[in-house]
Amino acid sequence: MDARRKLLIVGLAALVVAEEEDNERRKRRRHWYENIYRRPSVFFENFHMTEKDFCGLFGLVEPYLVPNRNTRPEAIPPKAKLAIVLEFLASGDLQRHVCSTYRISKQHFEVIIGQVCEAICISLSKEFPKWHKDSMLQWAKDFEEEWNFPNCIGAVGGKHVAIKAPPNSGSRFCNYKGFHSIVLMAICDAHYRFTYIDVGACGSEGDMNAFSQCEFGKALLSETLNFPDDNALNGERTPYFIVGDDAFPLHKRIMKPFGSRNLAVDERVFNYRLSRARRCIETAFGILCARWMAVQRTLLSGPEKSQNIVAACCSLHNFLLRTSPSTYAINEDSLIKADTVFTDLRPCCRGRPHDFCKSIRVNLKNFVNSPAGSVAWQNEAAGVQNN
Known about the structure:
Blueprint lengths: L1 H37 L1 H8 L3 H15 L12 H14 L3 H8 L3 H18 L9 H15 L4 E11 L18 E8 L5 E9 L3 H8 L1 H7 L9 E3 L2 E3 L2 E3 L10 E2 L9 H27 L1 H4 L6 H21 L31 H14 L9 H5 L5
Parallel strand pairs: 1-6, 6-7
Antiparallel strand pairs: 1-2, 2-3, 4-5
Helix pairs in contact: 3-4, 3-6, 6-12, 8-9, 10-13
């Protein structure tokens, strides 16, 4: 009886200690909430968004974070889950550091990251506009007004997001820069807002291979996208296109700069004018990395989890550009349902650029150097002498 009584006493004492620890944990959580909401500057430093944006985001993701019926009452609430993951994405700290800060196990935190990132991607899917004629014409108008480049509906580029080398992967994820990565292939509008993203290509593939294998690249190269009717420039009908760097091929729908070393004056001016439109995607990547440092640093996760994290950061990027008009002027009329899946695709075009693609670039070159398409400061900015 004495042994049983001792065991009972020890069990009751353990229950009392566990209850006290749970109460202390809830007190610390309430204290954290009160302090973080009381100081807006600290709130913005932790989450890189205002309290208003945080509450709006939580209202969207809350249905996907509701705990199960059998979950313990002292489990982490949905708002705390969102706050913890947002701080991890904004700071880019190690997972074990964030775990120790919030007194969460590393295994549980990995589950929370996957759950919250998936909820963000689903709830913010409408932040990516659909590619139809009206939206393309609006993007082309924005590029012409903001960056003085006609018929441009987007800027395309790729970013290598560093990840931990997966086991038994060899050199599959090792890129030309010497580290393991997955490729974020994206297209943005004139206001640095992503209109299409594709995440998950192996780092060894490079920008062009990643673009040609994604759904949008296949549809564009095989001419299955429904573009607007050609526009007249310099007396010639010119199709609408996206702009890229030398990593992409010269195509009817892709314009790239002249690649020769000994460029003529008008070709140098054209390269400068095109680069003003193309640098939108580089600026978009810069804003993405500045706000969400997890994309800038090495993700210590597998390719699939890293893909989920990067996609969530891109969704948050578009969300904040829309909800923060004081920082970036965004056209809210362009918000339409995201649907970047294409079917019945033909094989991609291969080989050297056709003469028609070259004629389009030459016509654009002549247009930006003509009185109708030139701007007063382009020669000086391009580093050429005025005629």
